[in-house]
Specification:
6 helices; five-stranded mixed beta sheet; alpha+beta; globular; 20% strand; 5 strands
Amino acid sequence: MNPEEFRGTDVSYSFICNRRLWFSLHGDVITDGSEFIYEGKHLEDFRKKRGYVQIKIGRNRLDSVEIRDGLSIIHEFKRGRRVILPDIMQVSHYINAYQQHTGRRAIGIIHLSSRKTETVELTESLRNMLIETYGKIIAHSNMTAPPPPVKNGYCFRGCSLVELCWGEV
């Protein structure tokens, strides 16, 4: 599977909510207006250093890539206080797409609003999880209707689709 065909946000959504993944894949709901998107963008602009470049690979936009001593470092900025699996998988996907596209070794660094960072390296285990995730994304893109809503811990803590799934909250 070519990782350039898949978006990092869809990889992340596949670990958060199947319904959100379906809507993202089918382009039916625009979530770019979410206050959480703006907060993450502000954090990225505020914390990004000179020398980082933006790279587009297939359907992916890697906002901040740095090359230091021959190693490519993909920086991802998140508004949370702790790193969660969807963040790790999104960065792993970016590393995978970058390495396949350029042939260069890369790692990822997740920057949190708490000023903590976490380094991500693409291990065999993460690569296998990505392959499963790509299959899940393909399956959801072939579905004609969205899956039913299922409440989870993300629903009422920042999901921009909460009203679509659960009505007024």
